[in-house]
Amino acid sequence: MTSIEELTRLIKKLPGMGEKSATRLAYHLIKTDSGYNKALGDAIATLKDKIHPCPICGCYTEGEICEYCNSPTRDKTLLCIVEESQDVVSISQSGIYNGLFHVLGGAINPLNGIGPDSLRFRELRSRIENGDFKEVIIATNPTEEGDTTALYIRQLLRDREELQLTRLASGLPIGGELGYADKLTLARSLRGRIKL
Amino acid sequence: MTSIEELTRLIKKLPGMGEKSATRLAYHLIKTDSGYNKALGDAIATLKDKIHPCPICGCYTEGEICEYCNSPTRDKTLLCIVEESQDVVSISQSGIYNGLFHVLGGAINPLNGIGPDSLRFRELRSRIENGDFKEVIIATNPTEEGDTTALYIRQLLRDREELQLTRLASGLPIGGELGYADKLTLARSLRGRIKL
To answer: Is the minimum CB–CB distance between B42 and chain A shorter than 8 Å?
Structure first.
């Protein structure tokens, strides 16, 4: 196998990469600058040596504790529960959330063998028992798995009556058009309609 | 910048990668096997050290001469001219071509500053003068640039009257439907219609 074929084979294992796009990418990398290739190759090869999950919230970090858990200015009464570490980045970039995070590491999906025990629920309970949280925002995906997980969290925390549980709003995406929205999204945006 | 942000920044420079897909890929690479990441990273970082253009046809190779030019079984009276090295792979994989190749390194595109001098036309002429070619298949892309380049090759070789010049057929893709074909493709497939 030549080095281009080998590179194509490896690229093809990435999500969303078919034979054609992998080949195209491999050939593209012949024409790029050597320095860029070395930087990209090195960043991929060493990524997992440099980062690890934050022992408190579970999001990926290079330091001992992540920047969110470590921040003195974030609101420690607010907790946002997400499925994946990258969701922390998305919510953080929205610019309107200044509380803490908790990464579950996925959503409950019995068909794929992911039960509550595979996710970071034990850590969640212990954080809530030992913390000062007033509101918990459930920000799992608006999918069947995400909804199941949200329901599970509600059950898990039902004895904490002082805690306000909320869920991210679902509905039409901003800039979207009614004609392009699917039935479920439309139904959700109707059920969750707000007073003007 | 954290190592994930740095990796995302580098991935974003690849063709077809936006902010979201680059972030998704970077986070995917946290979950993959370390051995895979090392292999992929290494393959990218060292790719350009291992390969170089074949001095005869211009396609990328690891050996001194490429496998096509070096092959004793390929038909040395047939020459297929393509724009890029990866086109050699595509045509080769079609399984019905057993001649030699010539890679131009692109197509004539005056707007992007790519004139005939930036492409491997000098090498093409000298190969044809010193070779035993009977047919030259022009396999540039069916785009404006590819058509211009095909026309240029016709001019370049007009004094070689013994040489048969052909061009890849354009028309409906196999498995495609008339309703989805664009006007230009339909026009070409009509103009190039064949007798049954």
So the answer is: yes
